[in-house]
Every structure is written in C-alpha cells, then in structure tokens.
Amino acid sequence: MNSFPISDYLAVAIFVFCLAATVGGALLAVLTARIIRSVCGLMICCIGLAGLYYFLHSPFLALMEILIYVGAVCVTIVFAVMLAEPDEPAREERSGAAILWGTVALTVGAAICWGLSRLSLQGQWTAPAAKVTDGSVKAIGVSLLTTYSMAFELISLVLLVAIIGALVIARTGRSKA
Amino acid sequence: MSLSELLRMLVYVVGVMAFVGLNAAYLVLAERKGAGRFQRRPGPTEVGYAGWLQPVADGVKLLCKQLIVPPGADAALFRLAPLLVMIPAMMSLAVIPFSETLVGRNINVGLVFVFAFGAINVMAVMLSGWASRNKYAIISAARVVSQDVAYEIPMLLVVITMLMATGTMNLHEIVQQQAGWFWHWNLFRLDLNPLMPVTFIIFFTCMLAETNRAPFDMAEAESELVAGAFTEYAGMGFGVFFMAEYANIVVGCAMTTLLFLGGWQSPFGVGSGVIWFLLKMYAVVFTVIWVRWTFPRTQFYNLLNLSWKILIPLSLFTLILTAVMMKVLRA
Lengths: 177, 331
Fold this sequence. Notes:
- Chain A is mainly α.
- Chain A folds into 2 domains: 1-89, Four Helix Bundle (Hemerythrin (Met), subunit A); 134-177.
- Chain A has helices at 5-31, 35-55, 59-84, 96-122, 137-145, 149-176.
- Helix content of chain B is 68%, strand content 0%.
- Chain B has helices spanning 3-38, 54-64, 75-93, 110-132, 135-166, 171-176, 196-210, 222-225, 235-260, 274-294, 300-330.
- In chain B, α5 packs antiparallel against α7 (196-210).
- The longest helix of chain B is centred in the first third of the chain and has 36 residues, at 3-38.
- The chains are: A mainly alpha, B mainly alpha.
C-alpha cells in the first residue's frame, strides 16, 4: 500500500483531538460553576473517550460509550437538573469549613493522582504476546458470558439494588406528601 | 491509507454534506406542497416554475437574517446546540449503504453506529431549549427528554429483535440477506417472527417520535409553545435545526428501508441498485409527511402512555417470540 505521507499526521491529529476533548471535557465538568455546563463537559469527555476506544481497536465499545453515557446518562442527569435546580451560578462559599474540606479533597486527589501516575509510569507492565481478543461484538459477548460472567451478574445486581432504592425513596416521598 | 482512499473520503464528505443540504431544501418544498395538497390548496407556486425555486428563496432569506443571542441566554451552549444537532445526523449518513458499492464506510457495527449518534440528538435539542432561557423553550426541552427517552426503549428493543433475526450488525450484510423477491424482505419474513409487520409498525412509530414529527411533535408544538425549543433561534440557527430535522428523517427512513424493506434490493429479484433504495426511502419519507398532515397532535399523557403501556410490552413480546422461534426452528 503506497502510504500517503500526511495520513500519519492525520491520525496523530485526531488522537490529539480526542485526548484534548477528554481532558478538556473533564476539566470543564469540575471547574465550571453552572451545573448544566458540567454535564456538557461530561458529554464532551465521554465523546473523547469514545474516540480513544476507537483508537484502541474497539469500535463497539466506543459506540456503546456514546449510546449509554451521552445518550442515556447525560440526558438523565440534565433531566434531573431541569427538575431540581434553577439555572443560577452557585454562590461562592468562603466559609472556613469549605476551605478545610477543599484542602482535604485536594490533598487526597493529589495523592491518588501521584500514586496512579507513578504506577503507570514505573510499574512493570508486560505487553501480552498476542492480542487478547479482536474487540469484535462476538468476542465481547463470549467473554462477558464466560470469563467475566460473575462480574456481569454482580453489576446487574447493583443496578437492581439502585432501582429498588429509587422506588423506595419515591414511594415514601409520595406517601408523606 | 493511500491517496485514492483519502480522495474517496473527501468525495464522500462533500457528497454527504451536499446531500443533506439539498435534501433538506427540497423536502421542505415537498412538505409544503404535500401539506397544500392534503388541505386542497396548491402550496407555494410563485418562485420559479410551480414554486421549484422556493427553497433557494428560503435559504437566501435565512442567510440574510441576523443571528441574535438573547440576553440572559447561555451564549456558548446556545451557539453549540445547532452544531450538536447537525453533526450526528451527518455522521450517521456516512455508514448507510445506498447500494452494494455506494457507502461511505462499511463498518461491522453500522447498526449501533446510527443509533449511538442518534442518541446525541436528544441532548442537543434539550440544550438548545435550556440555553435559550425562555419559558416555552424549557417546557419543550423537558417534553423532548421524556418523549425521546420513552420512545428510545421500544426502538432499541426492535433493533435487538432485528439483530437477533439477522445475526449481524453490518448494514451491508443485513441488506444482502434480503436478496431475491420481495417476500425475502425482513418485513415479510414471518418464519423469523410471525409478528414482523407489527415490529415494523413499532419501529416506524418510534422513528416518528424520535424525529419529533407530528403526531408526536411535542418539541415544536407551534400552537402551544411558539416554536418549542427553537423559539429564540433566528436566521440560519433555526435553519440548521430545520436541516437537521430533515436529515434525521432521512436517516430514520433509510434505517427503516435497510432493516425491513430490503435496502437496495429490487422487489423482483433482478435489477437491484441505488434507484430502489432511493425509491423505497422516499416512499417512507412521503408516508412521514402524509402522517403529519393527516393526524392531529396527541396529548402528552397519551403519548407517554402509548410508549410505556403498549409499545414497550409489545416490543418485549416480539423480542421474546423471536428468541423462542430461533431456538425452536433453527436448533
């Protein structure tokens, strides 16, 4: 195949774009004062992540990321925001408690970030000899129902608990009213 | 990636953009002409021969208008929303096979691709409503979410049914399986699932609801909510939403054609090609227009009841029935 010289740069450019979307979206999600913009940041972050999955040869996972996280999770969050909160920037909290908790959160966050970075940079990672799966739908399905069936069932159990919890909260809220 | 591949990509990108633009322009004309005929009046006739240049006049008018961001609106989101609604519709067209060879990119998960990008549409319409800071727009945004969430479930259940029946997510292969006479189309494959026509009707109904078309046009209920989520958009901002609506209709009708009506396959077993795909797709598009001008808008509660109490149980039933049929007949 006569490779076109610019094609490598194109791939790099798209990779950088996905990376920027992931990081920028994540930063937007935590730094903005308006909650609706945070959700937008989350959405951009998820789209960037989907792009990164695509680069890792998992188109199905990338599409599921968009379908579930952008199409369902973000929409649900925004819906909850619309029902609950008026669209006003939150007041700046400058009390002592806020600064204290902020410091604690920052310290813990920095520690986790440092630990993860250290692990990923200095850990003894061995590349698998062959590609584990081809990332196809069939491979994902087979591994979900054989190797990882326990985790798969446990996740559905967690979701069941969440649904029942939501029902219980909604029920008691209704009877009190 | 070779130079020819790059050129092919470029041609397809330009092609899809031109197709979306022209298609939106002339579907608006078709819609207005159709509406006129259904109401026993001629529709637009003044610009060009029998009104054929009306879309050009509309386009120039929209382009000349000032783009206004209302005070108090969230300017960044307000400007972002039209982009978010347009891009997914165009992305979806990249994987839809118009014929055996005419396809932007034939990927193995094409079916999921279209529905994944379709899901972004809800978010975009909702953001436009929210960012406008307008009562009507916000009411409309809340309606859009509850409607689209409700109708996405039966639609995806139908898609899973079709996925089980065809055994592939590749749109190309799904069409190839329907080769031959018209009774090989998935719509008439009663051996896969005796309720296939019902499945088709569920899919079509959900498609109407997902594209916010009457009788499900809660997002843009002109008589109650001015123009719904798009109330504050002027000029081409509104135009982009309009184009995206028609692009989404085309994507939805194309999916209906691919999944149920045999895609580019000719109904008589010979002479398959892009012409059949376009004929079928535009027949479905015409039905969409026909439905809009025939049925009145439903009430909001009826609309949600239809989805949660009828369509979801029914589509679950067809899903289980397909699974049972597969186990009994093919095992």
